């Protein structure tokens, strides 16, 4: 969803006029029908691709934090990246702020995609684990739909500030990720991996709502021992 908020502004004339005047001029030319020719600009490509490159690189760091610091803390780091990136982009007054914001958002994406699916798989009971991960993908798709609808609406705001609203609204899911990571507990698997066995057992007992968790607990311990 955050990606769609960010990417949708590149089709807004006011945004292009402010940060990419060369591209804006091409979009206004008569007889130039090729979008490739209109949007062929190194700065615009850097703005677009910086997020994806940052996400790819951040994944390597996220794999370390997910394993050594836990899924919960990794999601918190992702939320902080998202908030910083959203603020930089929404308040941008130059190209550098745009790119730095996109880099922060890309780091958030890398950390989120590493930690959230793993967190859902480990926290959910076996019988609904697959359904919960599919629901996660469904919610991502629904978020993309809503982001595109919002971009469609903000592009028509008079006064030239619609693009700032579009970029700023990405702060809503960013804050939700941050607050959510503060409210949830870390997964039993993560705690056990870090040799916090009693804490992992207590969390497992809490999320399963029963004291009869010994078989699952022993399975997690054995899986952790084998993986290490």
UniProtKB/TrEMBL annotation:
GO MF term list: carbohydrate transmembrane transporter activity
InterPro entries: MFS_dom (IPR020846), MFS_sugar_transport-like (IPR005828), MFS_trans_sf (IPR036259), STP/PLT_plant (IPR045262)
Pfam families: Sugar_tr (PF00083)
A single GO cellular-component term on record: membrane
Domain Major facilitator superfamily (MFS) profile: 1-228
Signal peptide from the UniProt entry: none
Source taxon at top rank: Eukaryota
Membrane-crossing residue ranges in chain numbering: 44-64, 76-97, 132-153, 165-185
SUPFAM superfamilies: MFS general substrate transporter (SSF103473)
Membrane as UniProt keyword: yes
UniProt keyword terms in alphabetical order: Membrane, Transmembrane, Transmembrane helix, Transport
Membrane topology: Multi-pass membrane protein
Compartments reported by the entry: Membrane
PANTHER family reported for this sequence: MAJOR FACILITATOR, SUGAR TRANSPORTER, MAJOR FACILITATOR SUPERFAMILY-RELATED, SOLUTE CARRIER FAMILY 2, FACILITATED GLUCOSE TRANSPORTER
Family: Belongs to the major facilitator superfamily. Sugar transporter (TC 2.A.1.1) family.
Name assigned to this protein: Major facilitator superfamily (MFS) profile domain-containing protein
């Amino acid at each position: 969803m955050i990606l769609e908020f960010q990417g949708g502004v590149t089709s807004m004339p006011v945004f292009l006029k402010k940060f990419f005047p060369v591209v804006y001029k091409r979009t206004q030319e008569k007889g130039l029908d090729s979008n490739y020719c209109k949007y062929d600009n190194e700065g615009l490509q850097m703005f677009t691709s910086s997020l994806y490159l940052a996400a790819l690189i951040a994944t390597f760091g996220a794999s370390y934090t997910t394993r050594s610091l836990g899924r919960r803390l990794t999601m918190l780091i992702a939320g902080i990246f998202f908030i910083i990136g959203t603020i930089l982009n929404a308040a941008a007054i130059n190209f550098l702020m745009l790119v730095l914001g996109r880099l922060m958002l890309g780091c958030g994406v890398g950390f989120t995609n590493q930690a959230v699916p793993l967190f859902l798989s480990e926290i959910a009971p076996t019988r609904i684990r697959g359904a919960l991960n599919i629901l996660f993908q469904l919610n991502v798709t629904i978020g993309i739909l809503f982001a595109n609808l919002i971009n469609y609406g903000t592009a028509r705001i008079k006064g030239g500030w619609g693009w700032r609203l579009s970029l700023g609204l990405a702060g809503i899911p960013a804050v939700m990720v941050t607050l959510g990571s503060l409210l949830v507990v870390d997964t039993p698997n993560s705690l056990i991996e870090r040799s916090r066995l009693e804490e992992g057992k207590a969390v497992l007992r809490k999320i399963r709502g029963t004291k009869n968790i010994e078989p699952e607990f022993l399975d997690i311990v054995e899986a952790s021992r084998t993986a290490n």
